[in-house]
Design a protein that fits this description.
With 76 residues, the chain is of the alpha+beta class. It contains three helices and four strands. The structure holds zinc ion.
Length: 76
């Protein structure tokens, strides 16, 4: 029984450590990744390589664009 408690305790410690590491990594990752959690799913504009929230992006021919200008550049 004591062995089981030790195993459960170890698993809990590992889980706590992992979630802490994940939080630290999120704090140090590029701005785009941090913003992804705040602004929903981000899509990449293939023309100017800017990340835009999917809701605000202009969608055309299977790509997402930050502006009408980029969409036009891509299509011509
Ligand atoms: Zn753009």
């Amino acid at each position: 029984m004591r062995f089981l408690i030790r195993v459960v305790g170890l698993l809990f410690a590992m889980y706590a450590a992992l979630s802490m590491i994940r939080r630290v990594l999120a704090a140090f990752s590029p701005a785009g990744h941090v913003a992804a959690t705040d602004a929903g799913h981000l899509v990449k504009d293939p023309v100017c390589e800017t990340y835009v929230p999917e809701r605000k992006a202009i969608q055309a021919s299977g790509q997402f664009f930050c502006s009408e200008e980029c969409r036009r550049k891509f299509c011509t």
